[in-house]
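User: Structure tokens for this complex, please. No commentary.
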Amino acid sequence: MAASESMVPPPVAGGDAAREELEQIEVDLLLEAVFRRYGFDFREYAPASLKRRLWRRMSAEGLKTISQLQDRLLHDPPAMERLLLDLSINVTSMFRDPSFYVAFREQVVPALHTYPFTRIWCAGCSTGEEVYSLAILLQEEDLYERTRIYATDINEQVLDTARAGVFPLDKMKQYTQNYIRAGGKREFSEYYVAAYDGARFSRSLTENVVFAQHNLASDRAFNEFNVILCRNVMIYFDKTLQNRVHKLFHESLDTFGILALGHKESVLFTAFADSYEPIDAAERIYRKTK
Amino acid sequence: MIGTSWGGLDALSRLLGGLHDDVHQPIVVAQHRSAESEELVLGQLLQHHTRRVVGDPDDKTPLERDHVYIGPPDYHLLIEDGHLALSTDAPVQFARPSIDVLFESAADAYRERAVGIVLTGANSDGAQGLARIKDKGGVAIVQDPATSERRTMPDAAIAATVADAVLKLDEIPAFLYGLCYEVAA
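Assistant:
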């Protein structure tokens, strides 16, 4: 074993320091500039996806280098707004991972029925697909009237989209299939009306939703919650930031509060692995135990 | 890093089955499949062909020796320093996982130590990513198009960069073995 280890060292990133990544230097400087100029801190975002998103913005702006992009961001605030959209829109769909919603109905809803009132935080709600999915589920389970959903995101512009509740009509076929597989109890089409090329969702779904700007990377706890949903948001954060956000969630959850993550996210690789027990391990639904 | 699409299961089985146990490097696979596909089945099928641990990675899963990681359906799979990362960004060339996304991130994180392999497939995903691996000093391997179940993907990769080797499936394991022990020497 020892011999083979010395012959085949595990891969190490980086390598030749002399070639140390011009582009990495540019990226670091850009993130520093954005933070100092606009206060948005992306320095602890997961680097691989962050770089892809920066490249995409760079080429959409018709620029050739990340340094040029930095120059534009500093001198042209609308360009910063465009980048902020790129960095904060987390692409999702209504009832993404239908099995998650089935598990939520079966494992979480019964507990919520025992509470007089439930506060739920959808953290990093982006354009709101998950908020509307959850509201539909809660309506069907007769819980909505005594629930308040706090839906937060770093970006006001995506929150406006979420508030409007209009989603592309051409997605409705897929969303309907998801809804059925998620254990939906009615006809999905009862929840929206077609308007131009959009599906406008019922206002009743947002009556008990508070949309608010909140930055997971820098803002503090603002309430106590029975349930926190944060699905496929922290995959864009590096481990340091993930741990900080987990601390925030841990502080914000009631005793026996429920934390729901994305299918491929785990508390295992975080500092809070011992603070939760799984309610449904496969669906990544956890209960706070200490 | 291996990217494949149409015909990929058979090709992957043969490649992993033929690979020498002394090749310890982590292997990361992006295989095109539908968002609804049963995510565990592919891994289980491949596990029959290899003694490596075929893993079903989460976000930030550390890269370990003697492991094979398969990108989950409906996520992009990326590589960072020492671990895997996921994203739900929009599909690239209609694919999620996208081979380009995987390869480009690997090229960035591991530079000359990244090895990209493009196998059979029916579109051109992977070509750009393989070119980036090559640009950063890594190794580019392409399955011989004439012997691929679908040749579109290998053809596109060969057109996009100067591959270090264009090989029949059964020749790839020996080439990888050679690479590992050249690196060591």
